[in-house]
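User: Just a sanity check before I run the rest of the batch. Below are the C-alpha cells for the first item. I only need the designed sequence back.
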C-alpha cells in the first residue's frame, strides 16, 4: 500500500494566515509578531495581561520506552489536540522545537506525522524562528567572556582547571566532545581542555524553558555557576557581567511561537531541551499561556514516561506550579512485539503471544504515572499491520492494570480517528481524579532523591556512585542547593541504563558517572551509563537524503 510521506502531506496543507489562528485564541493581531504568513511570536505584553484568567486543564502525552518500531508520541499529541477541538473543546497543543542534530542524524523530523502534523513542517524542522540560534549565541557569549576574563588578568581568580561551562552547537558532532582551546601562543590565551555539548543540552535552553518572564530569565542566567576558584569558591555568570547581554540575545527567543495543525488548530512550539540529558519539555511560558487561552492544553514530554513524564512532573510541574489533570501513554502493537522479543523485520506477522510478553513495559509505565496521582488512559497508535487479536490483547492487559486502552487512527484519519481518545481524556480530566504530587519532597537529600527515582521509577536495586560523586552532592547541599530536583540523564530505550534491556527489568543497578549543577535552571543533572551530552551522527545520517528538489522544495525530512 502506497502512502504519502509526512512532508508530502504537509506540503498540501491548507494553512490559514497566522493572524486567524491567533484570533481563534483571542490574541489581537498587534500582539502577534509574524515570521512570514504561517508562524508568529506572541508578545510578552499580551502574556502578562492574561495573569488573572483561569487555567484550562493540562493533559500530558507520554509513552512507553521508544523502540525502532516507532511509537508516535508527537503524532498522538497533535492528533489529540485536533480530536478535542473536533468534539467541541477549545484545545491548544504545546510541543517542543526540533533540534537540527537529530533531524540530520536519525529522526529526520519532529512535527508529528501523517494527518496529525503541525505545519509549516520544513521550517519547524530547520531554523524555524531562530530560537535555537539565539540560545547557542547566548551560551557561547558566556563561554567567550570566561576565556576573555582569564586572558585579561583573571581578576576573579578563576582556576582554569575548574571551568565547568562548555560550548554548544546545534548539531551532532562527536569530534567536538573533548577538545583543547587557546592553542597557538600568548595572544590566543591559556590552553585548557573543554568540549562541546549539543545546544539542546545547554543550561541556557533549560533556563529559557523554565523561566516565567524576561526578569526571571535574567536572574536565572546570573545564577549559572561557570567555574570555581582555586579554593573552590563558585564563580557565577553575573560575576562576569554576562547576564544582561545574554538576556538581550534571548529577548525574542523567550516569546512563544504560534503555528497550526493540518486542521488549522493552534499549536505553541517553543523550546526544546533534550529528554535524556535535560528535562525534555516545552517552555513553561508557552504552557502557561496556552492554559490561559484554552479549555484543554495537550503537551508532551520526551521519550518514555520513565524519563519524560518523571521530569515533567518532578521538575517542570514542581517549578511552575502546574497540576496535570490526566496523562495519555502512547503504545503500539509493534512496540509490544519488540518488547516481547520479535525482530524488527518480523513485526508484520501476527504474534499475540509476543504482544502479551511485551506488555509489562507498558504496565510499568501505567503504574509509574499513577504513582504521581495522575489518572491514565492508554492510546494504541494504530498501524495497518495490527490485527484484531493483537489489539484485543493490549486492551485486555491494560484493563487488568486498572486503565482503559483506546485504539487511535489519527495518523491516517486525523481528528476523526481519535475522537474516542478525546472523549476518554475529557471524562478523566473532568472527573477530578487527579491528586498530583511530585515523587519526592524538596527537602530530601540529593542522593536520596536519585535513589528514589532509581528504585521507584526504574525498579533498580541500587545506585552505584563513587565517593567523589557523593561528596560533590554533599558539598552542593552545604552550599544551599540541596532543595533542587534531580534531572536523570540515562538511555531512553530501557528502564535500566542498558539500552538493550527491554521489557520491565528488575534487580539492576544504576551507575552514576557524573553529576552537574544547573544552578540557573534549578536542577542537578545526574549522568548515568553511557549517555553523551554531544551525540554523534549514525553511520548513514538522515542528512544524506535531505535535499532540495527541482521545484526548490525540501525533500528527505520524513
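Assistant: Here's the designed sequence for the first item:
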Amino acid at each position: 500500500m502506497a502512502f504519502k510521506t509526512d512532508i508530502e502531506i504537509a506540503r498540501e496543507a491548507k494553512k490559514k494566515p497566522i493572524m486567524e489562528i491567533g484570533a481563534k485564541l483571542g490574541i489581537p493581531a498587534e500582539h502577534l509578531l509574524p515570521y512570514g504568513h504561517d508562524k508568529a511570536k506572541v508578545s510578552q505584553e499580551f502574556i502578562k495581561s492574561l495573569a488573572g484568567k483561569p487555567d484550562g486543564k493540562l493533559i500530558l502525552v507520554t509513552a512507553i520506552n521508544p523502540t525502532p518500531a516507532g511509537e508516535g508520541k508527537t503524532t498522538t499529541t497533535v492528533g489529540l489536540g485536533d480530536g478535542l477541538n473536533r468534539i467541541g473543546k477549545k484545545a491548544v497543543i504545546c510541543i517542543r522545537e526540533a533540534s537540527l542534530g537529530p533531524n540530520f542524524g536519525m529522526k529526520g523530523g519532529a512535527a508529528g506525522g501523517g494527518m496529525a502534523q503541525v505545519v509549516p513542517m520544513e521550517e519547524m524542522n530547520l531554523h524555524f524562528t531562530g530560537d535555537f540560534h539565539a540560545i547557542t549565541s547566548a551560551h557561547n557569549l558566556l563561554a567567550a567572556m570566561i576565556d576573555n576574563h582569564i586572558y585579561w588578568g583573571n581578576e576573579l581568580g578563576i582556576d582554569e582547571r575548574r571551568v565547568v561551562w562548555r560550548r554548544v552547537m546545534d548539531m551532532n558532532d562527536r569530534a567536538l566532545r573533548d577538545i583543547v582551546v587557546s592553542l597557538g601562543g600568548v595572544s590566543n590565551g591559556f590552553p585548557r581542555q573543554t568540549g562541546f555539548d549539543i545546544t539542546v543540552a545547554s543550561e541556557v535552553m533549560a533556563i529559557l524553558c523554565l523561566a516565567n518572564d524576561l526578569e526571571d530569565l535574567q536572574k536565572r542566567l546570573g545564577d549559572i555557576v561557570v567555574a570555581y576558584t582555586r579554593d573552590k569558591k563558585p564563580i557565577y555568570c553575573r560575576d562576569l557581567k554576562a547576564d544582561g547581554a545574554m538576556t538581550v540575545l534571548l529577548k525574542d527567543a523567550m516569546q512563544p511561537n504560534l503555528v497550526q495543525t493540518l486542521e488549522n488548530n493552534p499549536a505553541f512550539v517553543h523550546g526544546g531541551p533534550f529528554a535524556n540529558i535535560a528535562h525534555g519539555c516545552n517552555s513553561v511560558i508557552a504552557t502557561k499561556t496556552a492554559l490561559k487561552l484554552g479549555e484543554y492544553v495537550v503537551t508532551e514530554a520526551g521519550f518514555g514516561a520513565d524519563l519524560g513524564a518523571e521530569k515533567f512532573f518532578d521538575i517542570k510541574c514542581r517549578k511552575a506550579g502546574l497540576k496535570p489533570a490526566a496523562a495519555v501513554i502512547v503504545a503500539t502493537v509493534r512496540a509490544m512485539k519488540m518488547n516481547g522479543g520479535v525482530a524488527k523485520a518480523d513485526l508484520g506477522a501476527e504474534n499475540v503471544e509476543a504482544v502479551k510478553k511485551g506488555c509489562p513495559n507498558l504496565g510499568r509505565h501505567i503504574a509509574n504515572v499513577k504513582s504521581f496521582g495522575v489518572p491514565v488512559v492508554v492510546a494504541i497508535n494504530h498501524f495497518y499491520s495490527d490485527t484484531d487479536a493483537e489489539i484485543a490483547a493490549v486492551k485486555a492487559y491494560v484493563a487488568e492494570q486498572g486503565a482503559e486502552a483506546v485504539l487511535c487512527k489519527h495518523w491516517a484519519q486525523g481528528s476523526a480517528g481519535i475522537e474516542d481518545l478525546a472523549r476518554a481524556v475529557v471524562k478523566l480530566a473532568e472527573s477530578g481524579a487527579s491528586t498530583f504530587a511530585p515523587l519526592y519532597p524538596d527537602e530530601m537529600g540529593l542522593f536520596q532523591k536519585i535513589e528514589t527515582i532509581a528504585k521507584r521509577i526504574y525498579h533498580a536495586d541500587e545506585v552505584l556512585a563513587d565517593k567523589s560523586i557523593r561528596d560533590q552532592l554533599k558539598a552542593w547541599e552545604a552550599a544551599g542547593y540541596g532543595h533542587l530536583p534531580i534531572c536523570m540523564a540515562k538511555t531512553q530505550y530501557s528502564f535500566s541504563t542498558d539500552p538493550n534491556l527491554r521489557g520491565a527489568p528488575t534487580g539492576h543497578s544504576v551507575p552514576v558517572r557524573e553529576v552537574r549543577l544547573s544552578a540557573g535552571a534549578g536542577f542537578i543533572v545526574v549522568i548515568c551509563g553511557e549517555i553523551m551530552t554531544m551525540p554523534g551522527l549514525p553511520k548513514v545520517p538522515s542528512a544524506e537524503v535531505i535535499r532540495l528538489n527541482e521545484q526548490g522544495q525540501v525533500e528527505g525530512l520524513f
